[in-house]
Design goal:
With 128 residues, the protein is an alpha+beta fold. It has 4 helices and 4 strands; from the N terminus they run ααββαββα. A hairpin with a 6-residue loop joins β1 and β2.
């Protein structure tokens, strides 16, 4: 019922349609900044709301699907939900799907948690 109400609220829909592309563009810039700063290989987004990033490669661990799973468990333990590439039929281990269609504050916090799990430091989360 709540969904029906939202879809009938023309002012709300106009705001979402107008603002959402810019919000996604800004969040993409944040995640791209993080990955570039840490020199993490990634496949840029073209039409979706996620990037594929090779997070395992920066850890120095063996590049296996078993290690990908262990790293995913560590992310989950730090309250970060990423999707393993194995779940999307990536043929090489280490890739994670990082979604950026979340509120900006949650994205920055999540990237800081990823940084902690990977043992990285120094990414300067600007006042976006």
């Amino acid at each position: 019922m709540a969904t029906t109400g939202l879809l009938q609220d023309e002012e709300f829909l106009d705001d979402i349609i107008q603002d959402n592309p810019q919000l996604l563009f800004n969040n993409y810039g944040i995640i791209e900044s993080f990955l570039s700063f840490h020199e993490i290989r990634y496949i840029p987004a073209t039409a979706g709301v996620y990037v594929l990033a090779n997070l395992l490669s920066i850890t120095g661990r063996p590049m296996t699907f078993e290690e990908e799973g262990k790293l995913n468990t560590e992310f989950n333990g730090n309250h970060v939900r990423l999707n393993m590439g194995k779940n999307f039929h990536c043929t090489k281990p280490g890739w994670f799907r990082m979604i950026f269609a979340v509120p900006k504050e949650k994205l920055v916090e999540g990237l800081q948690r990823v940084e902690q799990v990977l043992g990285l430091k120094g990414w300067p989360p600007k006042k976006y």
